[in-house]
Amino acid sequence: MPIYEYRCQECQKDFEYLVFRNQEPECCPVCNSPKVSRLLSACGFVSKGSAGETVSSSASAGSSCSGCSSSSCAGCGH
């Protein structure tokens, strides 16, 4: 079951939604607007470095948003 990122067209908030059987979210969890659209999510990966250290990377690793500890930009709303 995939988790997709969505943006509300009314309040402009981003949110994540766990999709069961291709069922899209009916409304925004913040303002209850039915006007939501799925975002293109950046993928990420975790691998082991040559010395055994964990190395994380994502397509948004160069993002200017460095002020949060969320695992995705949708988690902090930026």
Describe the structure.
The chain is built from 1 helix and 5 strands, in the order βββββα. The protein is mainly beta. The protein has a domain at 1-41: Rubrerythrin, domain 2. A hairpin with a 5-residue loop joins strand 1 and strand 2. The chain is elongated, with a radius of gyration of 15 Å. It starts with a strand and ends with a helix. Mean pLDDT is 75; it is low at 59-64.
Short description:
By secondary structure, the chain is mainly beta. The protein has one helix at residues 73-76, and strands at 3-8, 14-18, 36-38, 44-48, 54-58. The chain is built from one helix and five strands.
Question: What is the terminal-to-terminal distance?
Answer: 25 Å
Q: Globular, elongated, flat, extended or rod-shaped: what is the shape?
A: elongated
How do the SSEs run, as a string of H and E?
Answer: EEEEEH
Percentage of residues in DSSP E strands = 25-35%
Q: Main sheet: which strands, in order across?
A: 2-1-3
Shape-level CATH architecture of the domain at 1-41: Single Sheet
Percent helix among the residues?
Answer: under 10%
The beta-strand count equals 5
The largest sheet is: 3 strands, antiparallel
CATH class of the domain at 1-41: Mainly Beta
The fold-level CATH name of the domain at 1-41 is: Rubrerythrin, domain 2
What structural category do the secondary elements indicate? Answer: mainly beta
Task: Write down the oligomeric state.
Answer: single chain
Protein traits:
single chain; 78 residues; mainly beta; Rubrerythrin, domain 2; two-stranded antiparallel sheet; 1 helix; 5 strands; elongated
